[in-house]
Each structure stands twice: as C-alpha cells, then as structure tokens.
Design brief:
The protein has 25 helices and 20 strands. By secondary structure, it is an alpha+beta fold. Strand 8 and strand 9 form a beta hairpin. Helix 5 packs antiparallel against helix 7 and helix 15 packs antiparallel against helix 16. The chain is globular and about 85 Å long. GO terms for molecular function: pseudouridine synthase activity; RNA binding. One of its GO terms (cellular component) is nucleus. This is Putative pseudouridine synthase TruD/Pus7.
Length: 799
C-alpha cells in the first residue's frame, strides 16, 4: 500500500537545484514568448515564513498591553481544537440538537416506510429530529365519504402482509388523535391509513376522503396538519381549503414513498413560514462547500441558502442556515449523505436569515504544548502555577480592557500571493497586473510539480512538502502560459481554484473551429476586465476588501502608537451611538439633529413610513439596501474631547471609500500619506470612485477596540507522545450527543482524557470567550500570547 500523500502550503524557499528550469530543451524560451500569451508567467515574491512576518505584512504590529507577559503554544493542532458556535441576536448560543437523518437506536422494519405504530410519539419525534408535540384542542367532527370506496378489481394489489393489516396506535398517540378530532373521526383516519397500507397502488380518488369543518384558529389547523404528518408519514395528506376547512385523504401513489411538498402559500403558513431554518454542524469544512453539496442534492443550487455569517474551515463550527420552501423531510433524507457534517433543529419561519444577523460567536480554543517565560528547569506542577500566573491576568484583560480590533490574517488569503496586492492592482486600473497576480506561481509549488514521479506518490528526499492540489495548480497555470491551450490547462486545474479557472476559460475562448495559430481567433485574449468579471463576485470583492483591511490595520496600529486610548478632536464616532452619549446640562440624553452639507436639519421618515421597493426575502426582486442600513459617523468636537464624552471603545476608523469621512486630525493625514505611498498603492483616499462599478468602493467604519465577553480559561497537564498530542480536551456537539461516527468521519474524540505515555509533561491552555460580529479570535489570542501562537502545519492530506 502506498504511503499517504504529504502536503503543505507552498511557502518558503526552494533549493536552487529544484527551481523550475523554464529554458530547458523541452520547454524553450520562445514558447513562453509566443504572441498568443498576453499575460506573462510570473513567480511570486518570497512568502513570509513566520507568523510575525505575515502579521507585519498585514499591518498587524501593535499590542494593546505590550507590558503583559505572553506565552507560546500550538494553535489548531487538531481541527477539533477550535470550536465555534454562532450566537443569535437574542444571545442564544446555537448548539447541535435534534439531529436529522441519524439512525435511531431501535431499528425499524425496512419492509415499510410507514412509521412504527407500537412506539410512543415522543420516541418517534426524537428519532425524526423534532421535539414538537401537537397541543390537544377540541376539533370539529369529520364525515367519511363512503361514495369514494368503490374500486375496480384490477386496481387491487397483492394481499397485504399480516403486519400491514394488524397495526395499532400506541395509547399516547391514540389519545392525542382523539382529543384533536374526536373518537369517531380518529377511527375513520385510522381505517383510511389501514386501507392505504392494504392497497398502496390504488388511486387516491378511490380511497375515503375525510372532511373537517372549518377551523378558524390557526394553531388548531397547524396541530391537525402536524399530527397527521407525524403519525402517518407520507401515506396521508392534509389540504387546507379557502374556507379554512381541512381535507384528509390518501396521498398519490407516487408521493407515498417521498415527501409531498405543502401546496401553495396557505400550506407553508400552516407549517410556520416559507423558510426552513436549521443548524449546520461541520468539521474541517467550508460553509459554502457544505451548502453546495446540499444544494446539489435538493436541486436548488447554493444560492437558495442564506447565512448570518461564514465560518472557518479548519475548525468545528455550528451555525444557523435558512432556505426558501424546503421541508424537514427533504433535509432528513439527504442529511446522512453529508460527510463530516450534521443537520439539526429544523423549524419553519416566515423570513430567511440575513448576512450579519447574529450577535457574534462563542469560541472554545485549545492551545497545546504551551511554554512560558522562565519555565526552564521547573517541574510540571511548577509550570502549571507559572501558566496560571501568566494566563489569568491576560484573560482578564481581554474582557476588561480588550484588544486592537485588527482584521485577521485570513482576510489576506492563504496562497502564495496576498489578496490585498490584487486589490491594489484593480484599484490602480491595472487589470492585467491583477490577473498576473492571480495566475502567479510559487517557485516551490512549480518545482514540486516537476519533482514527483509519474505516479505522483514518491517525493524526492528532503524536498519540501507540497499538496497535490497546489502542484496541479502550478502545472495547469504553467501549461496555460506555455501553450495558450485553455482546455488542456483546465483539465489539469483542480476545481477548487475557481478564480484561476474563470480567467483561463475567458482569455482562452476560441471562435468555433478557428485557426489556433491566428491571434484573431481569440477575441477575448486581452479582455482583462471581462476575465475578472467572470470570477464569482464574492471572490472579486475579497480582493478590494483585503486592501481596505490592510489600510485599516496600518492606521489602527499607527493611531494606537501615537495616541494610545486617548480620544482627541477630529476622531470619528458613530452617529447612532453618539446620540446616546451627548447630554444636556441636566444630565438628560439630548438627541442631536442630523444636518446636511448646508447645515439644514435632515428629517427622517417615521418607522414604517418608508417607500423601499423589494420582493420577498431571499427571492428575486429583492430590494436594494437602504441608506438607513449604512452606519454614519461624525467627528468628535473639541468640547466633547475635553469633557471626555467618548472613550476608545467608541472610536471608529474608516475603511477607505468614496462615501466615508476620514479623521479630521493627524490620523486623517496619515491615511493620505500611507495610501499615497508605494505600499499603499499610490492611491488617493478622497478619490475612490471608479468607472468599473465593482472597483468603486463605498467604504465603511470599524471600531478600533474590541472587548471579549464571558472569558474563561482552563489549564490542562497532559502526556507526551502521539496519544497525548491527540487527546481531545473539549467535547464537540456531536461528542456531547453521543452520536456514533462512521469510519469515514475520522476520529474526533469523546472529550475524555486518554492514557498518556510517561505521565504529564506538557501544558495546554483551553480558552473560552465570546466575540462580536467580525471580531477575530486569532487577534484576541495574539493579544494574550504576544505573538507566541504557532499555527499547526498539516503534514498529511486530510488532517
């Protein structure tokens, strides 16, 4: 059996002997200069190898409390060392519950898709991933339609089994049914279900139909629909009429093995709304990757899903998702097919989620193999005491004082090129240069692509570890530059590299069977803007946002170094928050009048008195974002600065754009200096409009300082050796529920300590904290560790 493939990000230098020989006899230089190739092959600059170098490149340089001691440790050694749970706007921390598609402990008879009638409704509801129970309420009596019982002999099927005929409801289920419908109607429904089981291929019109009197109370109608669906599955269907009456009948034979969709608007209202909300739990997987799989199985595509926020890949995350007009039953069918992911807590709501509709995230982070200043020669007990002396004040400081609210390194990309450098090229109008950046190749990856053997298994001795995907990317881009053959290059390029594929596909377009040696056969060869437009819009905006983040990080560090926590005249605060802080002489809150450029007061419409057009949430015709949803800022006056009206937690800095204010002090001047420098792209902060709309940035505001909430920490001594390093200290949601994992899911641990070799020799710090929207846990850890965090580098594929 071949050894597992090793992988690593293509970083660092490569031995000179391993560098690609672009002028070798097999690939002469003149091929690279072919006139068909309009974007030259470029090798990326030296990639920063340490975290400190990466942070400095991203403008992350200052600490809020540089005087406090830090420590070193390994972050994300296992993806289960980084647990993220989304927090709802109401403060509820979402955790995986009521999992859909997980096999119950008691196995059902596979010969029928009908629910087992000898179990209680509570047990069945739990197995189906719901805890909803119908509320017992009086219900109008039903009248069976005896005229519908006539059936021709040829429509009768084979004799039913004894189990089909001899079924009975559990006492609790019978009591629920009779309390809602009455004894006579409950018996008629039971007989109808028995008849459907006995003759499953009979047309629905030849089964009995039960009509209920009109029910004006919506809750009663909902209870009626739910109990029929829970007890009789997809064999029976309920339909609400225009007069609020309910018809109970047999489902069409073709629908009985599936899940019939609610019909029309009334049907979805009875369930609770047009949108199905559910909890997505995933391990070591991108949010979009999981949703793309669900969309393909539901035949809806990824765009039908809505999220409040995206989550890290190398982590275990739990978040809420919504989708328009899908049923719980549909999700339950495909849930078992998910790899390293689970779905739970599905419920219907009248509206979908919106981006940013969350209060933040709760993080539980395990930092392994920690070392502290002055620990040399100490016993494990002494090291644990030293660890407490270092971690306790640092963790307390996160909650009481906070940290500089930097954009984290993930904002700037994970490949050989930095996404902010692409954003600079686009903002400069150098679209060809932007494409050169995107299609650049790491020398290490290019050398690795040449060095592996034909079977792609044997790695030359002492050669850097490079992933298979990164090697294929380098080979595909090199093939494109060498031959100009987009089809050949795209066959090599892994699907995950969507931006590169979009560019090569557009620039390599050839008209029909035109001569490949004729440049006129490639009409889009120099259409660089068109190539960038074909990149998904979300990815395109990442490039410009990365540049904005770089400028903001550099400005935040500069402000802290110059002014510290002091608030001075000309600083920026949000208008919405400033209104609550401006007080009159009596100490009462005084509402400020908003004024326009001429000093005239702005009159805002009353709540609900707005004329904002838009369609249903999540659908076509969705209204444009109104001006009221955009945060506005204003300058701090000299009087307010002298009185200390605002503190550092109120101050914001702008992300560059054409619709923001800049500080009216020395920090505002710094924006002009930095953005006008070579590192800042030679741009003017007061001229950010572009002819190309996608490159025209409005800008935004971000708080300079952030404070964590509910900070807790725990120290753990553990053993040496592989078993100790793989010990799972904190149970995940799946571990907590006791769900048995298939072998394909891999090991995640059960949260229990494992036996270690030679007794405890290492120290782990477990940090739990809550952060607001768009606040980075990595930046909070950086503050308490003082740059001592060492990201774990996966050695094998799949880790």
């Amino acid at each position: 059996m071949a050894p597992p493939r090793k992988r690593a990000r293509p970083e660092g230098s490569t031995p000179e002997s391993a560098q690609p020989q672009l002028g070798s006899p097999k690939e002469p230089d003149d091929q690279l200069q072919n006139e068909r190739i309009t974007v030259p092959l470029t090798m990326t600059e030296q990639v920063p190898s340490s975290e400190a170098e990466k942070e400095a490149r991203a403008g992350i340089t200052a600490y809020a409390r540089p005087d406090m001691r830090g420590f070193q440790g390994v972050v994300k050694h296992r993806y289960t060392d980084f647990l993220v749970n989304e927090i709802s706007p109401s403060g509820l921390v979402w955790r995986l519950e009521n999992v859909l598609g997980v096999k119950p402990k008691s196995k059902r008879d596979p010969t029928t898709d009908a629910p087992s009638m000898d179990t209680s409704s509570a047990g069945r509801a739990q197995g189906e991933g719901t805890t909803e129970n119908a509320v017992s309420k009086p219900m109008a009596q039903a009248t069976p339609d005896t005229n519908a019982l006539t059936v021709s002999p040829d429509e009768q099927v084979a004799a039913p089994t004894a189990k089909d005929i001899d079924f009975k409801l559990a006492p609790a289920d019978r009591a629920r049914l009779e309390s809602l419908f009455g004894k006579e109607t409950a018996t008629a429904i039971k007989d109808l279900y028995h008849d459907v089981l006995k003759y499953p291929n009979r047309k629905a019109k030849f089964h009995a139909t039960i009509f209920l009197d009109p029910i004006d109370d919506k809750d009663e109608r909902t209870d009626a629909h739910k109990i029929i669906r829970q007890l009789f599955g997809s064999r029976l269907e309920t339909i609400t009429g225009s007069d609020n009456s309910i018809k109970i009948g047999a489902a069409l034979p073709g629908q009985q093995k599936g899940d019939s969709q609610p019909r029309g608007r009334i049907g979805w209202e009875e369930l609770g709304g047009d949108f199905l909300h559910f909890t997505l739990y995933k391990e070591n997987k991108d949010t979009m990757e999981a949703l793309s799989f669900l969309g393909s199985k539901l035949k809806t595509g990824q765009k039908r899903f809505e999220v409040a926020g995206t989550k890290d890949r190398r982590a275990v995350t739990t978040q809420r998702i919504s989708i328009f007009r899908q049923t719980k039953e549909s999700l339950a069918k495909i849930a078992p097919q998910l790899n390293n992911a689970y779905i739970g807590d599905a419920t219907y709501r009248p509206r979908g989620l919106q981006l940013g509709e969350l209060a933040g995230n709760e993080f539980t982070i395990t930092i392994r193999d920690c070392h502290f200043p002055g620990e040399e020669g100490m016993t494990i007990d002494q090291r644990m005491q030293l660890a407490d002396d270092v971690v306790k004040p640092a963790a307390c400081s996160l909650e009481t004082e906070g940290f500089i609210n930097y954009f984290g390194l993930q904002r700037f990309g994970t490949f050989a090129y930095s996404t902010d450098s692409i954003g600079i090229k686009i903002l400069q109008g150098d679209l060809r240069g932007a494409i050169e950046k995107i299609l650049s190749i790491s020398p290490t990856a290019m050398a690795a692509a040449r060095a592996y053997d034909a079977n792609d298994e044997v790695r030359p001795k002492d050669f850097p570890l490079v992933s298979y995907d990164d090697r294929q990317r380098a080979l595909a881009i090199y093939t494109w530059h060498r031959d100009g053959n987009s089809k050949k290059a795209l066959q090599i390029l892994p699907r995950k590299f969507g931006a590169e594929a979009a560019i090569i596909n557009h620039l390599g377009y050839r008209k029909g069977n035109a001569d490949p040696n004729d440049p006129s056969s490639f009409p889009t060869r120099k259409d660089y803007q068109g190539a960038l437009v074909h990149i998904p819009r979300h990815t395109r905006t990442i490039y410009m946002h990365a540049y904005q983040s770089l400028v903001w990080n550099v400005a935040a560090a500069e402000r802290w170094n110059r002014l510290g926590p002091k608030v001075i005249e000309g600083d920026l605060v949000l208008v919405r928050e400033a209104r609550l802080k401006v007080k009159d002489e009596d100490g009462d809150t005084k509402m400020e009048d908003e004024v326009d450029e001429s000093g005239e007061p702005i009159v805002r419409p009353a709540e609900g008195d707005r004329a904002i057009s838009g369609g249903r949430p999540g659908g076509k015709g969705k209204g444009k974002e109104s001006d009221d949803n955009f945060e506005r800022a204003r300058h701090v006056t000299a009087e307010e600065a002298a009185r200390g009206v605002f503190n550092i937690y109120d101050v914001v800095l702008p992300l560059p754009g054409w619709d923001v204010l800049y500080p009216n002090n020395e920090i505002g001047e710094f924006y002009r200096e930095f953005m006008g420098s070579d590192r800042g792209g030679g741009l003017d902060p007061y001229n950010m409009r572009r002819k190309w709309k996608d490159a025209s940035l409005m800008g935004n505001y971000r708080k300079v300082f952030a404070r964590a909430k509910n900070v807790e920490y725990e120290l753990r001594a553990y053993g040496n050796g592989p078993r100790g390093d793989e010990e799972q200290f904190v149970p995940t949601d799946v571990d907590r529920l006791g769900i048995e994992r298939d072998a394909k899911f891999g090991f995640a641990g059960d949260g229990k300590a494992t036996e270690s070799e030679g007794g405890p020799t290492k120290v782990a710090v477990i940090l739990k904290l809550q952060l607001g929207v768009s606040q980075y846990a990595t930046m909070a850890m950086r503050e308490i560790m003082k740059g001592g965090g060492v990201p774990y580098q996966p050695e094998y594929a799949g880790r």
